[in-house]
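FW: tagging you since you asked about this chain on Friday. Here's the raw sequence from the shared folder, copied in full. Didn't touch anything.
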Amino acid sequence: MDMMFEERLWAQGMRHVAGVDEVGRGPLAGPVVAAAVILNRDSVPEGLNDSKKLSIKRREFLAPLLWQSARVSIGMATVEEIDAINILQASLLAMQRAVDGLSVQPDHVLVDGNRIPDGFPCGATAVVGGDGKSPSIAAASIVAKIWRDNVMKEAATQWPGYGWETNAGYPTKCHKSALRNLGVTPLHRRSFKPIRDIL
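HL: got it, structure written out here
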């Protein structure tokens, strides 16, 4: 993966280019989490890629390196917000919060997908499949994935039996069977059809 998107913007004098990605649109439980990452040009960790294409071990190796070398911010939208405004709007809200939380204001934002949140403080480019094309977006996908997985592991200690420590809230066989046997928790997304059907 080359730095084509970033280099084009740097060449225009945009020093702080942020990559943004979210994780957690598909699960039945838990928040949606976005990360914004401004890479340090002189210290880009090797092997950045779409978090889904990396092993857990590789993600866990890269995430701390990114926290050390880059500017990183996390934004979340809660289960209540997902149910109130829908998962797409909640994803955009999480992205907005991630960018707002950066320690410097970016000059431009590269966003994974085809939608850009309305409230960014600067210009932005939507990059479909961006987590496989832009190292900045790939970095954001890795940081967001590790963060959300940890949120769900923590939640699994409070609501055991749903397998969140391994399925992160996605609708696996184990998770769906626990829903039938144990019922719906406060962390389940009530606007999602499988949960609505149970309720």
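FW: The longest strand covers residues 17-23.
HL: agreed, and The two ends are 45 Å apart (CA to CA).
FW: great, closing this out.
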